Amino acid sequence: GAATNVHDACIQEIESQIECEFVKPAAGAVWFLPKSMGSLIPSQALTAWKFLPREVPVMVWVGYLKKRGVLRLIMEVGPLADSTKRKSLLHAIEAAGIPVRATGFRDDAKFTRIASHSQKLKLDEDGEPDTSDEEVQRVFRALWKKYDEPLEKVVSALSNFDWK
C-alpha cells in the first residue's frame, strides 16, 4: 500500500544521500544509523529494538502517518538496559545543546525523542497525499536538512561520551 511505497522511496533517498551503517525497515518505519553516529557507539545491551542489526541506543527513523499524509523524521535515545548510563547519555546530549525533557531522565524511561520534524506531503489532483517517489523524496530531503545541527550536536556528545 501507500505506506510501503513511502518507505521504499525513503530507503532509496536515505541510501543515496546519507552514509549509513545500516538501513532497516521495521515496525512501520525505516530505521537508519548514520555512520557519523554509529562509529562512535559501541553495541550496548538494550531492552527493546531487538530488530536492529546492531544494538545501539541512539537511532534515527522515518515514518509515514497515512491518515494525515505526514512524513516524520525522529532521532531518539532508546532503551538502554543500564538506566544510569542512559541518563548519563541524555545529560551529555543536553550539554551538547539539545534540550531533553525531564521525563527522559526517569529510571523507568525507555524512549526519548531528541529531534522530531514532520511535514505533510502535497496533495495530488484527487486531494489525496502524493505518495510518488519524487514527492516523498523531496519531503524527506527537506526534513533531513533540519538535522544538520542536531546530528552535529549528537555526534559531539557521542564522541566525548564514556561508554564504560
Distance between the termini: 44 Å
Our count of helices gives 5
Q: What structural class do helix, strand and pairing data support?
A: alpha+beta
Strand and helix order = HEEHEEHEHH
How confident overall, as mean pLDDT? 95
What does the radius of gyration come to?
Answer: 16 Å
Strand order of the largest sheet: 1-2-3-4-5
Strand percentage, roughly? 15-25%
Helix content: 25-40%
Rough outline: elongated
Major sheet summary line: 5 strands, antiparallel
Low-confidence segments = none
The count of β-strands is 5
Give an account of the 3D structure.
The protein has helices at about 1-15, 35-40, 85-95, 135-145, 150-160, and strands at about 20-25, 30-35, 60-65, 70-75, 110-120. It has about 160 residues and is of the alpha+beta class. The chain is elongated.
What does this entry show, briefly?
The protein has 164 residues and is of the alpha+beta class. It has helices at residues 2-17, 35-38, 83-95, 133-145, 148-160, and strands at residues 20-26, 29-34, 58-65, 70-77, 112-120.
